[in-house]
Amino acid sequence: MKRLTPWNLPLSGILALALAACGGGETEAPDLLECGPGTELSGGACVLAEDTCGAGLTLNENDQCVPTEELCGDETVYDTESGTCVGPEEIVCGEGTIEIDGRCLVDNPLTCGEDTVLANGQCELTEEICGEGTEFADAGCALIGETVCADRTVFDVALGKCVDLGNVECGDDTFEVENRCISVDTVADNLASSADVVYAEGGDNALTIPELETSLVFAGTIEANDAGEHQFTLSAEAGDWFELTVFTRGLPSPMAIIVNDSGYDRATSSALSNVAQRTFAMPVDGDYTLTIANALNQLNGTANSGDGTWAYVAQISRIEAPEPKPWPGIEAVATGDLADLTENLYQVEFPEEFNLSMNVDMLGADAQAVVDQWASLSEFTESFDLEEGGSFVPERPASGEPVFLLFDVERQTGPATGFEISTQRAVDVDIDETYEFEVTTQPGQMVKISYTTSNPSAFNAQFQVSQNGEELASYGNTDPLNGTTSFSTRPDARYFFAVDGGTYTVGMTNDNWSAPIYDFVPVITIIDPTPIPVAGDESFTFTREEELEEGGFAFYRLDITTPASFEGFLRTGELVFEEPEEEDEEGQWIDDEENPGAGDPDAVIIGSDNFVSEQFFEEGTFEILEFTLLTPGSYIFAISAYEALTQGYTLELDATERQALVPEEIISETFTLETYDLIRGSAEFADGESATIRVYNPDDVVIFEAEASGDYEFLELAPGPGDYRVELTNETEDAILRPTYEFEGVTDADFFEASLGSLDLGTTGAYTAGDRDYYLFRVRDAMLISMTFSVAQGEAISTKVFSRASRNTLREQVGNLINFEDLYASNDLIIVEVVANSALADGYSFDLDFDEVTGVPAVNESVSPGLQISPSTRTVSSSLSTAGCIIIESITVDLDIAHGFIGDLDVVLTSPEGTEVLVHADHISGGLLVGNIPDDIDAEESLDAFVGESGSGEWTLTVTDTYDDGGGSFDTGTVNSWGVNLTCSI
Length: 986
What we know:
Helix content is 3%, strand content 51%. The chain is mainly beta and 986 residues long. Strand 5 and strand 6 form a beta hairpin.
């Protein structure tokens, strides 16, 4: 127990003792205090007396007993908290010592390693260093007894036993023999002195693989002026393994090549060295030709080189076949080095339900490699060539037994001979059967879906891509992108835009009518397109310097946050702008002759629905890009090389922000008009988009309504005065539209009551491009109208004749001299629009003739749509409008359609009343469908189905390519022009 002494107590404790000694408590203090022993009266209180502190203590100013200076020694001080004398906080070591772990020790510069200790100023071994069979003596480990180590071993003091010397690494010009490095010359000379076979010109030169643990040595000398090689006959049996080493004794870099008549072909490395060595596994019984040559000559394809002769000596040593390694399976990757043959033998067990497809994920650039399949270690079956990115399917034996795969190198030109092989399921897909697999992507990636199969010539399949049970895309043997490449280089793949990312299910359905698809393996490549963020008016330039091979693709992703239109160029060389020769012509961009391009680039835009929205297929080294009104979202801009772009390409895009029309939004404009004033409107929409246009009269009644799409125009008449309203409405639930539109009220149209005779309505004065004039002709009785327009040479106008009764455009033309003959009109309001396409110096002439109708009127209308028929647009439609034909008496049809195979096409004509006639079916060969039906071309169905109907209104021609072999040989074509010729009764 610690003894309680006064200086251990705090001040409160000392005061409490003092009060008790003075008789304190609840009793009233006497007038004169009586202090107890050890205390004295001071200041009206009993306090400790100084003489009570004892030896070595003294009373301080706080009436505490504290040590005197003599109590604490040198370099120490009194610590009031602990009540003891303590040393300084930091040790100050004297000369020749240093502080280590709070102690001052002698300073010594030696640092002793593991199992040693500092003693007597030096590091000495500790006794623990000695192992079994040794003891510590004389600062080291000594043997206990008479232990003697055998040759090529040495006594390891630390382990206390004899150990192998280990494998040595010999340097240049040396060779390892029994774990010792000996010069190549010495080894070669020693072997040559005991050669079993020496090459003799015209001799037997026969070699046989020796027994285990024995060697066969053969040698020869190649003269400077001979073919540069010696050939030996080597006898072997299937499953023989041996190591061949060839030493040069003169000119460096020997090489050995072993071949046989069944296709076996292996060689030592062709890298330049004075020793060639490798392991061989012989696949069949019989004789092989072993050629010794100079590696440099073999590489150059020359005979022996050098000023003199060179000698060689070689040694064949039989080795045991290595123990096969188990194939790592589907979830793992087999890796190795082709140069180390003994490590490349695998035993493969086949699952019951599917075969195995081996994918070559990596193959060293210096290796020309094969894989040999063996039914057993002495029964070879077949070989497969190995290429990086390729695959092979080992043949499953009927017995169900495992097979053996040996990965080997035929030729080696350097050290890069590594390989990596992964494994996938290889399944058989029966006719009409569907095989499904999954693909996982990040948002906005492209998926390339290709495949391998053991019978590719029979591959004919449909691919469907779905997610969460919803089908997103369906492809035959090709997808829309493949139409941008030449037929000979179309990739055997389908491309899918994974706009949302996640896990997709891909189904492959065998559409081949006669055979299963054997050993089908999907090959999935995930592609990250170059992102192009578009958030307004921006310009982008991307340059690719390396070649884009024929049939290859490059992908860009347009991430659009605001509606935009685009224009620009895709080019392989430099461009210059060629000014037009005539004022009414447009200039064009052409190749710069000083910096020409190479190849033929094409481009396609694919939306999130994986349908083509724009495509650019012009021939030549550049494409003029112009696509408008892309709504917010992500799109793929795919560049393809119809012909190889050997110099790469440059992509230039300028984005312009456009107005958006959100779902259920209405754009409204109001015009104050008088009788026979007009409302003119136009709107331009992207492909697949449309909006509703309505015109309201002053009583808020709809007098005109139409679904507008594409490049749409309309004219509407004001039958009375008042305020008219035009509305453009997006009636979809989720589509954002971004049309360009223009509405205007025309209050200066000239009105005429038509009567028989002529009119001259020419104008004078200057016009700027875009100025418009309107004329209205009230035709009450049946009339034939002729119109002629003309402007000065070098100027141009466009004219349009519109029927108010049918709401159709009757005639339309652009030029400097325009003539419309025999327009039939009856009880109609004919509206004529004249637009200045260029500046007009002095107006235009406009002459009209109104004639009586005599005989049966004829109506002839035609259009030239130039519609492209392609894998992505298998069905196309074109329309034209006719007027003035009350009842059809007879009809003929003009066609001008070009196609790779006309027999693939169905052509249907639909009348204004909805009657459909199949005018051509898919059984005629050839590449052109040009002429008149029925004069030149027999109609599939009779055109008489139209007789008796009204001929006024909209006629539609629909052309469908009905052929589908899965996509590989799809032909393209163009609907150049077509027309109808009507004979009508009034």
